[in-house]
């Protein structure tokens, strides 16, 4: 029957649409908690954008509370020792620390950034390459039920491997938006993130609360392609599936209309009405 053929085609169409999952774009803004104007612009963006707060920042507690009220995902942006001689903020992690000291510093950071669901590294090229330090860190993150986002500040990072060994969910940064703060460079990196998402299905982007970064994100997210969905870091951590909007499909029955069942009285412009 014609209606059965229509139903089959509609079902096939729906199956095809459900299989075409949008690519996931997750954005984390690091270094939150230092500058009120730039932070305000970040917090005015969609709540799917996650914020990474440095515990030692002057407005860390305020930003933590603001994010909690917005339902925005929060990460502890933990200062970690770089290979350079650059000084890190207080409360950070350095090579040679004991398990007790690492645990104490993570717990202190969590008491400040209490809404955190995960942690990522601020700098940390030396720290994330050190197996002993990463083992101590991941053991404490397991205790705190936090995941780890490796900012990938160095290719020799062992953070992800050690996290897996310790039963901690670990994710990797794919694209830095603003290694260069030039507007054209940030725009180029944003487009690279979109392309990466299409090729791989998921892209994690890290940026900072800077004028050009905010401008690029505001423009880009206002015109987000239909095949890209902005998601929070928490949704990636929980491995939530992106469900595209259901299309409207009208299915017809092969039963005759009531106005076409005899006996009926013809009515102009109608097929008829029952007597």
UniProtKB/TrEMBL annotation:
Pfam families given in the database record: Polysacc_deac_2
Keywords carried by this UniProt record: Signal
Domain of life assignment: Bacteria
Gene3D superfamilies per UniProt: Glycoside hydrolase/deacetylase
InterPro entries: Divergent_DAC, Glyco_hydro/deAcase_b/a-brl
Signal peptide: 1-20
GO biological process, one term: carbohydrate metabolic process
PANTHER family: DIVERGENT POLYSACCHARIDE DEACETYLASE SUPERFAMILY (PTHR30105:SF2), UNCHARACTERIZED YIBQ-RELATED (PTHR30105)
Annotated protein name in UniProt: Divergent polysaccharide deacetylase
Organism: Lonepinella koalarum
């Amino acid at each position: 029957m014609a209606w059965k053929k229509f139903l089959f085609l509609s079902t096939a169409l729906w199956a095809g649409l459900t299989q075409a999952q949008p690519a996931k774009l997750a954005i984390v803004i690091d270094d939150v908690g230092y500058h009120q104007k730039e932070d305000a612009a970040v917090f005015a963006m969609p709540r799917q954008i996650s914020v990474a707060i440095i515990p030692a920042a002057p407005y860390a507690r305020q930003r933590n509370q603001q994010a909690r009220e917005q339902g925005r995902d929060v990460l502890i942006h933990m200062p970690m020792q770089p290979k350079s001689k650059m000084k890190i903020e207080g409360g950070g992690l350095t090579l040679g620390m004991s398990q007790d000291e690492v645990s104490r510093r993570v717990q202190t950071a969590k008491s400040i950034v209490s809404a955190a669901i995960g942690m990522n590294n601020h700098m940390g090229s030396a720290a994330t390459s050190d197996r002993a330090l990463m083992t101590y860190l991941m053991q404490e993150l397991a205790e705190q039920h936090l995941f780890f986002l490796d900012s990938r500040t160095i290719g020799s990072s062992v953070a992800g491997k050690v996290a897996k060994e310790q039963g901690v969910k670990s994710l990797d940064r794919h694209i830095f938006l603003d290694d260069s703060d030039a507007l054209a460079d940030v725009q180029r990196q944003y487009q690279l993130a979109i392309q990466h998402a299409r090729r791989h299905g998921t892209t994690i982007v890290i940026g900072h609360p800077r004028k050009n970064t905010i401008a690029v994100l505001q423009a880009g997210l206002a015109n987000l392609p239909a095949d890209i969905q902005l998601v929070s870091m928490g949704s990636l951590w929980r491995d939530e599936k992106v469900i595209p909007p259901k299309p409207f499909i009208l299915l017809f029955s092969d039963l005759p209309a009531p106005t076409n069942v005899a006996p009926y009285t013809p009515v102009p412009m109608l097929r008829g009405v029952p007597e």
